[in-house]
TrEMBL record:
Domain NADH:flavin oxidoreductase/NADH oxidase N-terminal: residue ranges: 2-117
InterPro entries: Aldolase_TIM, OxRdtase_FMN_N, Oye-like
Official protein name in the record: NADH:flavin oxidoreductase/NADH oxidase N-terminal domain-containing protein
UniProt xrefs under PANTHER family: NADH OXIDOREDUCTASE-RELATED (PTHR22893), NADPH DEHYDROGENASE 2-RELATED (PTHR22893:SF91)
Short name of one Pfam family: Oxidored_FMN
Source organism, top-level taxon: Bacteria
Length: 145
């Protein structure tokens, strides 16, 4: 953070995500308290997975004074974040939305969202396989200029 400055630094948080066997019983108190401590550092944004109940993210929204990016889905969920999930969180106070798997499978993701074209699904078999296949091999629906 010292090298680039707080205004160019953000933090990704996965409240109550249960990843790697971590169990949280106090997310509703813990994350707003964490954000109250982080806020004076002047970070540009928090980037939060919607991995906790809605009330936890709502409390985080109230506790965070700057940009909040929401990734609408738990990573273990086979349902990928999509336009409807994005709009739901924009309506609940998110400033920006991030899409993970949808971005992998749709090289023209922004145009698809603009035109309300169905999103392609990516093949999880390639997630950690290495190489271009499954990352750079998905076709565009909208012809790219
Ligand atoms: C191949 C792959 C790698 C990922 N790597 C990370 C990671 O390194 N750190 C992290 O916080 N989340 C990681 N995630 C989780 C995503 O950031 C995101 O939270 C998840 O895919 C759910 O959102 P989505 O439905 O938009 O894909 C990864 C997801 C995928 C599919």
């Amino acid at each position: 953070m010292q090298a680039v400055g707080a205004t160019r630094t953000g933090i990704r948080l996965s409240p109550d995500a249960g990843i790697w066997g971590v169990r949280e019983t106090d997310a509703l108190e813990l994350y707003p308290a964490l954000l109250a401590e982080l806020a004076p550092l002047g970070l540009a944004y928090i980037h939060v997975i919607a991995s906790a109940p809605d009330e936890v993210l709502a409390a985080m929204r109230r506790a965070w004074p700057r940009a909040m990016i929401v990734n609408p889905n738990h990573p273990a969920n086979t349902t990928r974040s999509d336009r409807a999930a994005a709009e739901r969180w924009l309506g609940r106070g998110a400033d920006l939305i991030s899409l993970g798997r949808a971005f992998i499978a749709n090289p023209d993701l922004v145009e698809r969202l603009r035109r309300d074209v169905a999103l392609a699904g990516e093949d999880p078999a390639y997630h950690y396989a290495g190489g271009d296949t499954g990352y750079l091999t998905y076709p565009s629906y909208v012809p790219l200029a």
